[in-house]
């Protein structure tokens, strides 16, 4: 993941250069953003968000999908390559469409799943996905990322929930293989007190890498009852809370750097991942204190990362731009919170966030999403990243169930 983040953050950091587990205080109601609350009558029979999800998929089919059922990185600078987590994210998006009742997305979802086998490391007994391949699936090699494999495992568990028979079994089996690679990779070690390295180069240990691992281990334990997954979830959770939690903000910081220093920038999507991780960990351990932890992170995000004047989550505390995938991830987390506690305020944030992204980053001429822009649209990039389109398809169909 973050395949293009470091170039952006290098600029951000130049401009910005200028241990124990702390209990979380009880949840307080978040400040309601200026978004119309749900209900009230008169809402359309077909959600505008479902319409937009389908329009986004139309852009994807026309501009990014290949005859192999792989997906291009983007339409401009890298149209001949495929990134692992971009393709996994499209499976995630299609699984959400199937979950919403549209089985026409199953065929392409399953074909992309089969194409993904090209990126699996067949020379390693433990496998693991490489990060990059050509569009035909050839040329996969090099670095393997823990967060790519952790997220992909979670994607497959979503697909598992909307499929049947041999397909259902295949998705579960591959999710377990992703977890097996994490476990046997040797990338969880005692450096900085534990935690997974970002990738096989062993340079940084980020929150999001460990957060998606926590999600995968927790959900696999819920599904299979295999205590190995629960044990790993407990270990990863302990490291995150002892090393990455910032008690001042109530949020989780970015990562341990190669120098051993902790980078305390706070990202929206890191904390969105932690919300989902805690909700799953609560189920895996039968400990509702982690539901409260998830709610507390949601409240803290709405204090620290929500830009009220623009009604949107910022990229991070050092870069107040917006971007579809990484800012949009918060919408998924807020929907998951609403599904847990029925507090409609979470949906207000989820909706406001997508509305702002649609206003600033969606091109109405072709229904594609630009990669980055300032809060008011200034400095908008002109490239269309595949992962941004996939996530906007997914998030809008998720929201369409409620709005």
Describe the model.
The chain has 403 residues and is mostly helical. It has one domain (42-399): Glycosyltransferase (Alpha/alpha barrel). Helix content is 52%, strand content 6%. The chain contains 13 helices and 11 strands. The protein has helices at residues 5-16, 48-63, 84-99, 106-115, 146-161, 165-184, 207-224, 227-244, 268-285, 289-304, 324-341, 344-361, 386-399, and strands at 81-83, 132-134, 205-206, 245-246, 251-252, 255-256, 262-263, 306-307, 312-313, 362-363, 368-369. The strands form 5 sheets. A 3-stranded antiparallel beta sheet has the order 3-6-7. Helix 5 (146-161) runs parallel beside helix 7, helix 9 (268-285) runs antiparallel to helix 10 (289-304) and helix 12 (344-361) runs antiparallel to helix 13. It is globular and about 50 Å long. The two termini are 30 Å apart. Residues 6-43 have low confidence and may be disordered. InterPro entries: 6-hairpin_glycosidase_sf (IPR008928), Glyco_hydro_76 (IPR005198), MUG_Protein (IPR053169). It comes from Mucilaginibacter pankratovii. This is Glycosyl hydrolase family 76. It holds the Pfam family Glyco_hydro_76.
Number of domains: 1
General form:
globular
The helicity comes to 40-55%
CATH topology type: Glycosyltransferase
Radius of gyration: 20 Å
| Structure annotation, total helices | 13
Please name the CATH architecture: Alpha/alpha barrel
Share in β-strands = 5-15%
Mean pLDDT: 92
Just give the CATH class.
Mainly Alpha
Number of strands: 11
Distance between the termini: 30 Å
Q: So what's the oligomer here?
A: single chain
- Unreliable stretches (pLDDT < 50, length at least 5) are 6-43
């Amino acid at each position: 993941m973050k395949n293009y983040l470091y170039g952006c953050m290098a600029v951000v950091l130049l401009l910005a250069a200028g241990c124990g587990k702390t209990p979380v205080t009880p949840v307080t109601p978040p400040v309601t953003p200026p978004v119309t609350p749900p209900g009230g009558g008169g809402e359309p029979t077909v959600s505008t968000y479902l319409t937009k999800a389908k329009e986004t998929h139309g852009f994807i089919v026309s501009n990014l999908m290949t005859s192999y059922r792989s997906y291009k990185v983007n339409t401009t600078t890298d149209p001949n390559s495929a990134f692992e987590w971009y393709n996994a994210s499209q499976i995630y998006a299609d699984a959400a469409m199937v979950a919403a009742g549209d089985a026409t997305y199953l065929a392409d979802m399953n074909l992309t799943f089969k194409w993904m086998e090209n990126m699996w490391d067949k020379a390693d007994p433990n496998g693991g996905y490489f990060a990059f391949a050509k569009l035909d699936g050839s040329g996969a090699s090099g670095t393997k990322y823990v967060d790519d494999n952790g997220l992909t495992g979670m994607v497959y568990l979503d697909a598992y929930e909307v499929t049947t028979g041999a397909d259902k079994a295949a998705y579960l089996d591959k999710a377990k293989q992703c977890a097996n690679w994490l476990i046997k990779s040797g990338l969880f070690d005692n450096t900085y007190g534990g935690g997974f390295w970002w990738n096989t180069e062993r340079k940084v240990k980020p929150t999001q890498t460990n957060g998606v691992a926590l999600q995968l281990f927790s959900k696999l334990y819920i599904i299979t009852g295999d205590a190995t997954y629960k044990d790993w979830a407990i270990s990863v959770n302990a490291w995150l809370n002892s090393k990455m939690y910032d008690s001042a903000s109530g949020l989780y910081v970015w990562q341990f750097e190669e120098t051993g220093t902790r980078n305390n920038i706070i990202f929206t999507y890191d904390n969105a991942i932690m919300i989902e991780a805690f909700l799953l960990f609560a189920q895996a351990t039968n400990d509702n204190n982690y539901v409260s932890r998830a709610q507390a992170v949601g409240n803290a995000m709405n204090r620290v990362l929500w830009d009220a004047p623009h009604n949107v989550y910022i990229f991070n505390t050092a870069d107040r731009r917006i971007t579809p995938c990484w800012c949009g991830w918060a919408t998924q987390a807020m929907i998951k919170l609403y599904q847990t506690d029925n507090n409609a305020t979470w949906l207000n944030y989820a909706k406001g966030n997508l509305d702002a992204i649609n206003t600033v980053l969606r091109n109405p001429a072709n229904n594609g999403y630009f990669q980055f822009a300032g809060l008011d649209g200034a400095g908008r990039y002109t490239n269309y990243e595949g992962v941004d389109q996939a996530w906007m398809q997914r998030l809008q169909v998720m929201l369409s169930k409620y709005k």
